C-alpha cells in the first residue's frame, strides 16, 4: 500500500515538474505604456494551429501554462500596431515592444476610428458620436449604433441582447445596479465604450468554457483617473404644492479603487428606486435559487406614462459603493443602500370579466398611499487568477412597506397592508482549472423572515413566514479532442414555516445529478445535459423522481452571423402558495382556498437568438423567438359572488402555450449624424380559464412596434423621436372575439443650443382606444432652458404645459378587460442650480 501511495506521489510530482510557464508583457515601443487587451496566441512547432489564446491585462501582462516539451511560438497582435512573433522563453519574462502602424481592419476599423476593435471586442470613440451637451453617460450611450437603452428602466442591450456585466475600467463597482453609474457619471468623463461579446468573467475559463454573454466596459479619459467627480444640485418650484429635489454625488473610478457615494432627495415625482434596481442578475458565477414564496404583495400599477407624471412622492436615497483591487487577481466590494419612499396616487379602474355564463362589471376608484423603508448591505470578495477562481457574496436586505387604499365604487372600505422582509444570503463559488479539466464547488444559503398583515372591514389577517434554503453542489469537467464531459452533483434543502390560522411547515429535500456533454468544432458547439433529481416533501407527503434534459446549439456561420438555439423539457412542482391547505385573503376582494395536493408541472421551452452585424456599415439586426408549453393537472377556478372573488382548485388537466417573436434592426448613418432603430415584438398565448362554474378557452395576441430616431443635422440642433404602437386582441370561447385595441405613444425631444446655452422641448402624444367606439387623445409638453458656465449649470423647467388632468387606457388580460385612469401631476415650474467638479 505504501509503495502504491509513493508511486502516485512520484507521478504527481513529475507532472508538476513538467509544467512550464510562458509569461510576458506587451508595451508601446514609443511611450513604453502597457497595452491592455492585446491578443496573444501560442502555437506549437511549425504548426499554425492556435494552441492557446489570451488577452493582456491592464498592466499589459500575459501568461500561459504548458506541459509539453515543444518549440512554442508567441504571437502578439494589437489594433494599430505591427504584429510580432517570437520563440517562447520558458521561465523568463518576455517583453514585446510593438511598433505603431496605420492600418484599417476589415469590418471593424472604419472612418477615422470612431468604431474599432478586434476579435469579440468593439470599441466606440464617444467623442465622435456625442455633441458635448449630454448630461450623463446614459444620454451618450443612446447615440451609439447597436446599443439600446430602455427609456424607463435604464436597461442596456447590445444587438437585442441584455448586457451581463457593466464595468468601469474593468471593475464592477455597482454590483449590477449600473443605473447608479449611467445616471450620475458625466458623459465627458468617458473616452470610449467597449462591448465585449462572448465575455467570460472567470479568467481561468476563458480558453476552456465558451460563453454567450455580452459585457460593456467604460474607459475613462486619462485625466479623470483617480479624480473625484463631484455633483451638487438643488432645485425648487411649485405646482399645486411646493416642489424640491437635490443631490450630492461623489464618484471615484480609478483602476485600483472605485467608489460611488450618493444622496438624493425628491418631491417632483421622480422614481429614485430605479437606481437600486438590480439590472444584472449576479448569477453567472453562482447558483440560481428558487424565489421566496409570497402570499400577499403590495398592489402594483402599470401605465405607459413615466411615473414622474403620475406620482406624488417624497423620496430620500443614500448609497455607498466601494471597491478595492488588491492586485490584478483580487478585489473586494462593499455596498450599502437606504431608500425611504412615500408615494400617493389617485386612480381607478372599470373592469369587465367575460365568463361563459355571465359578464361581470366592476368599477372602483382609489386613493392609494405607500410608505417604504429599504436597507441593504453586501460584501463581495473575489480572487480571479489564471488557474483558479473564488468568490463569496454576503448580503443582508430588509424591506418595510405599509400601504393604505381608500376604495369607492362597488365597495366602500379602507384596506391596510403591511409587508416586511428581512433576508440574509450567502453565495460562494470556488473552481480550479487543470490542463484539461475543471473542478469546483458552489454553495447558496438564504434565511428569510417575512411577516404580513392585512386589514379591511372585519378582517385582520396576519402571516408569519420563515424560510431557510440551501443548495450545495460539486462539479468536474474534462476536455479532450474537442469534447467536454462533465458531471455535477448536489443536495438541496428547504425548511418553510408559516403561521396564519394554524401552524404549517413544509420541509423539502432534493438530491440531484447533472451529466453534461459538449462537442466543439471551430465555430460550432453542441451541448447536451440532463438534470436527474430525487425530491422528497414531508408535508404533504410527496416523493418524485424526475429527469429534465436540455440541448443547446451555438453556430457562428461567419464573423457577421451567429445563431444560438435551446430546447428544454422540465418537470417541477408549483411553490407552496399553490398547495397551502388553509384559506386566506389575498386582498379585500379575493379569497384563496386551494387544494393541498402538490401540482406536478411539465414545461417545454424552445428558444433561438439569431444575430447579424455589419459594424463597418453601423448595421445591426437580431431575431429571437421562444415557445413555451406547460402541462398542468389542475386549473384555478374563480367564483364571483357578493363582491368577492373566491379562488379554488379544479382537478382538470390543461395546457397553456405562449409564443414570442422579437426583431430589432438598428442602422447608423454617421455622415448624416443619424441613428435609427425599429423593434417589432409579437406575443401570443392560449389556454383555459375556469370561472362561474364553467371552463372556456382564451387566446391573446399583442403586437408592439417601437421605432426610434436620433438625428443631429447641425451642431446646434438635435432631434430624437420615439414611438410605441401596441395592438391587443382577445378571443374567448368559440367565436367570441373582443375588438382590437390600439395604444400609441409618440415622443419627440428637440435640443437647440450649444455648450453654453441649451433649450430642450419635449412633446408627447398618446392615442388610446378605450373600447370599440371610444378613444382618447392626450397631448403633453415640457420645456427646459439651461445656461452652462464653467462648472455651473442653471436650469428652468416647465412641466405639463397643457395642464392635462387625467390619463386613461384599456388593455386585455386573458378573459378580463381593464379600462384604467389615473390623475396626472398639474402644470409645474422648477428652478435648479448644479455644480460639477
Task: Describe the overall structure.
The chain is mostly beta strands and 837 residues long. 3% of the residues lie in helices and 64% in strands. The chain has three helices and 49 strands. The strands form five sheets. It has a 26-stranded antiparallel barrel. Strands 8-9-14-15-13 form a five-stranded mixed β-sheet, with no helix packed on it. Strands 3-2-5-6 form a four-stranded antiparallel β-sheet, with no helix packed on it. β40 (694-714) and β41 form a beta hairpin. The radius of gyration is 29 Å and the shape is globular. Residues 1-18 and 102-112 have low confidence and may be disordered.
What keywords describe this structure?
disordered N terminus, mainly beta, 837 residues, five-stranded mixed beta sheet, 26-stranded antiparallel barrel, globular, 49 strands, 3 helices
Number of helices: 3
Beta-strand percentage? over 45%
Q: What can be said about the biggest beta sheet?
A: 26 strands, antiparallel, barrel
How far apart are the first and last residues' alpha carbons, in Å? 72 Å
Query: Tell me, what's the shape?
Result: globular
Question: Poorly predicted ranges (pLDDT <50, ≥5 residues)?
Answer: 1-18, 102-112
Mean pLDDT: 88
Please state the structural category.
mainly beta
How much helicity do the residues have?
A: under 10%
Gyration radius from CA atoms, angstroms? 29 Å
Please give the number of β-strands.
Answer: 49
Amino acid at each position: 500500500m505504501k509503495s502504491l501511495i509513493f508511486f502516485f506521489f512520484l507521478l504527481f510530482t513529475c507532472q508538476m515538474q513538467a509544467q512550464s510557464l510562458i509569461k510576458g508583457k506587451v508595451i508601446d515601443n514609443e511611450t513604453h505604456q502597457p497595452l491592455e487587451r492585446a491578443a496573444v496566441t501560442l502555437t506549437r512547432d511549425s504548426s499554425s494551429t492556435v494552441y492557446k489564446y489570451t488577452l493582456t491585462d491592464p498592466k499589459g501582462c500575459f501568461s500561459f501554462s504548458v506541459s509539453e516539451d515543444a518549440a512554442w511560438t508567441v504571437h502578439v497582435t494589437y489594433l494599430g500596431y505591427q504584429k510580432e512573433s517570437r520563440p517562447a522563453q520558458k521561465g523568463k519574462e518576455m517583453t514585446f515592444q510593438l511598433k505603431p502602424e496605420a492600418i484599417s481592419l476589415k469590418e471593424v476599423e472604419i472612418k477615422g476610428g470612431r468604431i474599432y476593435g478586434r476579435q469579440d471586442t468593439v470599441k466606440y470613440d464617444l467623442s465622435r458620436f456625442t455633441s458635448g451637451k449630454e448630461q450623463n453617460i446614459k444620454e451618450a450611450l443612446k447615440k451609439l449604433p447597436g446599443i439600446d437603452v430602455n427609456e424607463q428602466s435604464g436597461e442596456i442591450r447590445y444587438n437585442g441582447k441584455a448586457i451581463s456585466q457593466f464595468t468601469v475600467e474593468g471593475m464592477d463597482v455597482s454590483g449590477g445596479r449600473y443605473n447608479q453609474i449611467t445616471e450620475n457619471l458625466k458623459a465627458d468623463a468617458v473616452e470610449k465604450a467597449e462591448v465585449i461579446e462572448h465575455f467570460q468573467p472567470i479568467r481561468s475559463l476563458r480558453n476552456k468554457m465558451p460563453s454567450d454573454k455580452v459585457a460593456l466596459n467604460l474607459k475613462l479619459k486619462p485625466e479623470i483617473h483617480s479624480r473625484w467627480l463631484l455633483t451638487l444640485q438643488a432645485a425648487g418650484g411649485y405646482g399645486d404644492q411646493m416642489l424640491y429635489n437635490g443631490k450630492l454625488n461623489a464618484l471615484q473610478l480609478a483602476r485600483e479603487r472605485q467608489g460611488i457615494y450618493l444622496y438624493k432627495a425628491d418631491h417632483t415625482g421622480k422614481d429614485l428606486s430605479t437606481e437600486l434596481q438590480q439590472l444584472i442578475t449576479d448569477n453567472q458565477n453562482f447558483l440560481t435559487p428558487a424565489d421566496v414564496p409570497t402570499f400577499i404583495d403590495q398592489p402594483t400599477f402599470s401605465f405607459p406614462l413615466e411615473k414622474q407624471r403620475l406620482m406624488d412622492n417624497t423620496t430620500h436615497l443614500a448609497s455607498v459603493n466601494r471597491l478595492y483591487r488588491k492586485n490584478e487577481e483580487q478585489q473586494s466590494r462593499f455596498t450599502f443602500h437606504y431608500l425611504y419612499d412615500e408615494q400617493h396616487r389617485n386612480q381607478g379602474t372599470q373592469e369587465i370579466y367575460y365568463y361563459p355564463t355571465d359578464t361581470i362589471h366592476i368599477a372602483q376608484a382609489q386613493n392609494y398611499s405607500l410608505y417604504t423603508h429599504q436597507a441593504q448591505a453586501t460584501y463581495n470578495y473575489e480572487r480571479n487568477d489564471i488557474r483558479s477562481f473564488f468568490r463569496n457574496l454576503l448580503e443582508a436586505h430588509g424591506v418595510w412597506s405599509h400601504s393604505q387604499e381608500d376604495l369607492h365604487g362597488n365597495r366602500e372600505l379602507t384596506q391596510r397592508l403591511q409587508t416586511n422582509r428581512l433576508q440574509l444570503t450567502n453565495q460562494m463559488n470556488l473552481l480550479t482549472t487543470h490542463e484539461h479539466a475543471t473542478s469546483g464547488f458552489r454553495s447558496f444559503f438564504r434565511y428569510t423572515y417575512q411577516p404580513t398583515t392585512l386589514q379591511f372591514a372585519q378582517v385582520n389577517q396576519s402571516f408569519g413566514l420563515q424560510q431557510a434554503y440551501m443548495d450545495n453542489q460539486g462539479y468536474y469537467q474534462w476536455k479532450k479532442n474537442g469534447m467536454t464531459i462533465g458531471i455535477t452533483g448536489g443536495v438541496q434543502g428547504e425548511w418553510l414555516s408559516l403561521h396564519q390560522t394554524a401552524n404549517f411547515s413544509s420541509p423539502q429535500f432534493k438530491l440531484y445529478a447533472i451529466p453534461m456533454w459538449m462537442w466543439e468544432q471551430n465555430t460550432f458547439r453542441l451541448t447536451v445535459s440532463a438534470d436527474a433529481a430525487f425530491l422528497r416533501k414531508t408535508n404533504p407527503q410527496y416523493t418524485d423522481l424526475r429527469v429534465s434534459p436540455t440541448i443547446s446549439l451555438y453556430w457562428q456561420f461567419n464573423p457577421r452571423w451567429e445563431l444560438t438555439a435551446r430546447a428544454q423539457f422540465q418537470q417541477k412542482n408549483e411553490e407552496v402558495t399553490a398547495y397551502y391547505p388553509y384559506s386566506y385573503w389575498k386582498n379585500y376582494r379575493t379569497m384563496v382556498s386551494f387544494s393541498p395536493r402538490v401540482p406536478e408541472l411539465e414545461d417545454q421551452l424552445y428558444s433561438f437568438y439569431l444575430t447579424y452585424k455589419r459594424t463597418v456599415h453601423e448595421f445591426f439586426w437580431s431575431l429571437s423567438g421562444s415557445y413555451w408549453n406547460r402541462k398542468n393537472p389542475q386549473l384555478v377556478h374563480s367564483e364571483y359572488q357578493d363582491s368577492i372573488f373566491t379562488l379554488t382548485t379544479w382537478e382538470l388537466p390543461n395546457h397553456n402555450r405562449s409564443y414570442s417573436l422579437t426583431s430589432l434592426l438598428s442602422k447608423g448613418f454617421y455622415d448624416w449624424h443619424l441613428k435609427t432603430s425599429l423593434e417589432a415584438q409579437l406575443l401570443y398565448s392560449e389556454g383555459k380559464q375556469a370561472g362561474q362554474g364553467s371552463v372556456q378557452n382564451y387566446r391573446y395576441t399583442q403586437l408592439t412596434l417601437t421605432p426610434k430616431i436620433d438625428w443631429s443635422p447641425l451642431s446646434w440642433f438635435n432631434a430624437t423621436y420615439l414611438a410605441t404602437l401596441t395592438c391587443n386582441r382577445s378571443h374567448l370561447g368559440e367565436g367570441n372575439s373582443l375588438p382590437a385595441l390600439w395604444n400609441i405613444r409618440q415622443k419627440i425631444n428637440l435640443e437647440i443650443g450649444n455648450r453654453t446655452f441649451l433649450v430642450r422641448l419635449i412633446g408627447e402624444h398618446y392615442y388610446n382606444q378605450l373600447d370599440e367606439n371610444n378613444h382618447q387623445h392626450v397631448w403633453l409638453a415640457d420645456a427646459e432652458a439651461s445656461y452652462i458656465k464653467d462648472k455651473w449649470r442653471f436650469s428652468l423647467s416647465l412641466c405639463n404645459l397643457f395642464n392635462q388632468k387625467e390619463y386613461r387606457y384599456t388593455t386585455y388580460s386573458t378573459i378580463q378587460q381593464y379600462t384604467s385612469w389615473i390623475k396626472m401631476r398639474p402644470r409645474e415650474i422648477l428652478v435648479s442650480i448644479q455644480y460639477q467638479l
